[in-house]
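B., you asked whether I could sanity-check this one before it goes into the benchmark set. Here's the sequence:
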Amino acid sequence: MPKDQFWLTKLKASEQNFRNSMDSSLMGIRIIDVNLRTLYANKVFLNIFGYKNIDEISTTPLQDHYTPEEYAHYLIRKDKRLRGENVPDNESVTIISNDGCVHTIRVYPNAVLWDGKQQRQFVYVDITGQQKAEEALKASEERYRRLFETAKDGILIQDASTGLVIDVNPFLIEMVGFPRDEFLGKAVWELKCIKDPITVKGIFLELQRKGYFRYGDLPLEDADGRRIDVEFIANTYDVENQKVIQCNIRDISARMQAEKQRDLYIKILHLLNQSGGKNVLIHDLLEVFKEDGPFEAVGIRLHEGDDYPYYATNGFPHKHIKMENRICAVDDKGNLFRDSQNRPILDCMCGNVISGRFDPSKPFFTDGGSFWTNSTTDWLASTGLEVKQLRIRDGCSSEGYESVALIPLKANEVTIGLLQINDTRRDRFTLELIKFYEGLAQSVGIALAQKQIEESLHISEASYRGLFESAADAIIIADATTALIIDVNPSSIDLLGISRNELIGKKFFETKSFENIVSSKKGFEDFIQKKSVYCEDLTLKTSDDRQIPVEFISNVYNVDKGEV
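And here's what the prediction gave me:
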């Protein structure tokens, strides 16, 4: 074979191999000349656009398959080329094939030798599936980011190997009041909001071992020093071949507060239902209220004469008690100021609460008449002229107490005193907590009023017993229904010469000593019916049968729902 013929054969074989490779390519391939006439198109290209054969390309140009948006971009690119501006060779286009399907095509142009001439070759890669996957991934990432950004739980993302914080969501930043920079790049147990770093580091080590951890009550501290009770749930998972930890942090302060209030309510009810005097009850109540906050100082004022001094305190310094014990307003000579109804005027905010001088429209008063503030400094600065009108003495603020609550103690709608809670720290109260304390104070007020009645009754009974035992006159108490003798005083025993045991439990009209006064059941019933009897000419019979003239007085009255 001549040498030229050999090389020609080799060239044709090479071209055929090239053509075969394009025919069998998984990508669409099209070759055009300088007049944009299609010289070659493989089957994949025809399938992408929906052409049956190469001739259809001339009757339906490629740009006719563009979507409206894509066609607009095509005209812009064409205009730029005509003006000589640079237009990227590699581009993606969105087309509608003859069968109505939408495809996203990536086009790669390059020069190629075709039939001995330099022509333009375009490789078309259908990236519709890839684009959909990318869009789905992007949508998924956007959904996760929206969930992350809008979640009502705090979320921390950490590197599982180091514990360093990779990301933090806005809710946690707002919850604790620290900026984003205070989280990123720090180990979670090193964060300023963590109150118990040892426990948190232990959780991290357990997470590395188990891949999951839940802690039901982990305390955080916000930028203002306020405690936040949170539930801590952490999981590990893989992201792009990196193991990360997601910590969900849920504020359970409201739930913990509800449980705490329930426990306090049970404690208070237990104390109120115990037997014992008022002193012991108030001491125990103050102990429980002080521990509940915990608060630095608590006290109870009760009505005494014209004033409402401290009955008991826990945590207040002696100086405060001495200066603030009495709240009645007095002149230079110590005389009480009184209102138009001759009632003593009570000074300071304690006096306002006890006297019912409050305006529920003011944020520092409740509808129930309690006063509260989380900062006496800010309150006094903002109240202005009202301080003078409210007769404020400023004792608590001058002693450094910032959080102050004054809650009336009432019984049957009558204020008998108040519960006072003070703390030098700010933000110790919420409106919900004050209202809860108001409910407790109502029960406490009723119990204290009952204790006062019981103590008054005890004093009265003691006084009566003293008079009964020391009376010079003989006194005999008998049941008005049964006529049984219930009690006798020492003078009766001395007069009759009969022991107490010989008289108690005997019927009055059957007792020999009283036979000259009443000797029958009928006679006793006549006494009872008359309610009051007075006789001057009767005699009693002593144990030695002596007759003693006496003045006899009989009265009927009620004792414990029975007559005597």
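One thing to flag: Residues 15 and 21 are 10 Å apart (CA to CA). Otherwise nothing jumped out at me.
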